[in-house]
Amino acid sequence: MGAIAALINLFGGVLLAHAVYSAYEHSLLPTSSLPTKPSTLLPQSLDPKTNLPTDITLETLLSACLLCIGTVLSSPGLKPIQWNVWAGNVERSLDARQMKQVGVGGGNPYAGLEERPGFVDIRAARREFGEWVKEGVRP
């Protein structure tokens, strides 16, 4: 699917570039683009100043659709949403079971949270700091 998706994306990109260039060239021709009547649905700032031919509009829409299809086809497979399916896949994989670093691996994605040290006892740390200050630091 990778090669087909890449070809679809390439073809969609070429079509989009051609449609943009054609629209630009069409806007430069003063005789072929007659001004449009003001629309009652759109505000004046969004109302187009020129009429684009139907073939340029269709080419733009086709290229956008092809690019969307190519992007969807080239995307990787979706990961499971359910926790038990995802955790089961992680715990069964050989990569996850191997310990690569301290706290990384072992098949449990939350091992770092479960094995972390408890909360620091602030009062004990303050007491130790007070004793250290009372002792004084002498070089």
TrEMBL record:
Pfam families: MMgT. It is a multi-pass membrane protein. GO terms for biological process: protein folding in endoplasmic reticulum. Its main location: membrane. Coiled coil: none annotated. Keywords: Membrane, Signal, Transmembrane, Transmembrane helix. Residues 1-19 form the signal peptide. Belongs to the membrane magnesium transporter (TC 1.A.67) family. This is Magnesium transporter.
